[in-house]
TrEMBL record:
This is GNAT family N-acetyltransferase. It comes from the Bacteria. Residues 1-92 form the N-acetyltransferase domain. It comes from Pseudonocardia alaniniphila. It holds the Pfam family Acetyltransf_1.
Length: 92
């Protein structure tokens, strides 16, 4: 599946060559005007479908900043589970 430039975001992948076929979805960011209306969910589902069909993913994982409640809620509603929470320091 191609992600055309008109898409609100274009998710990146890391790890397709990993022995366990685990793929990390990196930086799924939507433009503010594209937020809401299920667009983030649609992009996530398309990214997971691509990871499976194109890269034969054995597992898909992602990182979410602890303070990003909206994103965490989306991922949990899609069946993801929290593996662990990392502590961060500073403002970055």
């Amino acid at each position: 599946m191609a992600f055309p430039s008109a898409m609100p975001c274009s998710p990146g992948f890391a790890g397709p060559e990993a022995p366990d076929r685990a793929i990390e979805i990196r930086r799924m960011v939507l433009r503010p005007e594209w937020r809401g209306g299920g667009r983030g969910r649609a992009v996530l589902q398309a990214a997971v479908t691509r990871a499976d069909r194109v890269h034969n993913a054995g597992r898909v994982w992602l990182r979410v900043k602890p303070q990003n409640a909206r994103e965490r809620k989306l991922f949990l509603s899609e069946g993801y589970v929290e593996d662990h929470v990392e502590k961060t320091f500073g403002t970055a």
